[in-house]
Every structure is written in C-alpha cells, then in structure tokens.
Amino acid sequence: MFGALADPTRRALLTAISDRPAATATELAAELPISRQAVLKHLTALAEAGLLDRERSGREVRYRVTPEPLSDAVSWMAEVGGQWDDRLDALGRQFGRGPHDTA
Amino acid sequence: MRDRIEREVFLIATPEEVWEALTDPATLQGWLAEEVELELRPGGDARFRDGSRLRTGWVEEVSPPGRRDLDERGGRLAFWWAESGEPASRVELTLDPAEHEGTLLRVVETRPLEILDLVGIPLRGAGGATFGPALVAA
What we know:
The complex is a heterodimer of chains A (103) and B (138). Chain A is an alpha+beta fold. Chain A is built from four helices and three strands; from the N terminus they run H-E-H-H-E-E-H. Chain A has two domains: 2-65, Arc Repressor Mutant, subunit A; 67-103. The mean pLDDT of chain A is 82. Chain B is 19% helix and 41% strand. Chain B has helices spanning 15-23, 25-28, 112-119, 133-137; strands spanning 4-11, 35-38, 45-50, 53-63, 75-83, 89-98, 102-110. A seven-stranded antiparallel beta sheet of chain B has the order 1-7-6-5-4-3-2. In chain B, strand 6 (89-98) and strand 7 (102-110) form a beta hairpin. The longest helix of chain B is centred in the first third of the chain and has 9 residues, at 15-23. Classes of the chains: A alpha+beta (103), B alpha+beta (138). The interface between A and B is medium-sized, with 32 and 38 residues.
C-alpha cells in the first residue's frame, strides 16, 4: 500500500480527493499541472493499491478515498497516542512533571 | 492523511539528566518498554519488548545535549521501530532547556505516509525488519 504513495503526484491526488466526497479524472486534471491521461494512470495505481474506490457515474468514473486506510490511521493514532501518554506519565514520575504539558 | 502523534512534557530535570533517561538502558526500562536494547549510534540496532510485543528497529540520530550543532543545550534521539509484519514508524525525542532548570521533552511518532518525502523509499514492515538502511543498501 505504501509503495503506491511513494510518488508525490499520487499523494497530491489522494489529498485532493480526500477533500471532497468523490472526484473524476477530468476534475482532478483541471486542478493539477498534469494531463488527464497521467491523472488516470495514477488513479488506477492508487485504486489497485486499495487506497481509492472506483464507481461508475454515467460516462465517467468517480474516485473516492477508501475508508479503511483512513480509519486505520485513526486507530493507529489513538493506540500510539495512548502508549506515549502512559510512557510519559512513567517518565514524569521519575523526574516530577511541570505545569506546561500539552500532552 | 496524518499518521502523526505529538506529545510534550515538561520535566523537572536538566536536559542532561533527561538525556540519561532516554539513553541509559536501565532507566529506559522504567518507562519506554520493559526491555530495551539501544545501540547508541546512527544505524545501530534497537530492540524493545513489552510482554509478548517485540519491536525491532534502528537508530537514526544520537545528538546529546550541549552539542554546538543544535540550539543551545538541546538534544535529539531518533529511531525507527516496527513490530513484525507492521509498518515501521519513526520516533523523535527532542529535548530543550526550559525555565526553572527544567526540560521540555517533545515526542513525535510518525508513520511513513507523511515522511516518505524525507526517506524517498516506501517502507514496509512486512516479512520482518526490512526497513531503514538495510533497504537502502540492498
């Protein structure tokens, strides 16, 4: 999955799509400095990596960000954030902890 | 798409004392993980165990407080870790002197989505610890 994101254009596309419910290759090509054909190539790679869902809408295909990798990110942040809270609590007990935490 | 955790804690200790807690294996085992092995040089091996959870990784940066290439007396330790089969993440611990002889410790943990630009390669934990310098050298 991460291999598909090694290309900065793909990350820009993914970010652009995640800002709205769904987007077509034509819409994205109008916003980014690359051709519709190049956009389509990247969208296909992202869809094959499981990062985008495709949905036919009349003559066009609409792409939306797959919810799973995003909810995976949310659960990762919750889990890892909780672990650091616990670790820093333990470290704080060793030294004493001041009033300026933003944890 | 931000796989990033950031925490800050103000500790009543000098940056040098906090650095000791970040780098001395015995002290690390009091807060970072139950068992810690950290080879304190860039590219050194790292190993962390908590119960049945084992993370392995490597050290990216070891900059003790008081070095002239960092602001004032700040210090920084950065390493990568991953559980087998999981994507690797990067941990950066930054120390800065704070008021009343204290230290501000900032922790940032990131997963590759956001930092692929810095590394330039896709990182994968799949199939073992095939990330970091080993992959660059391969």
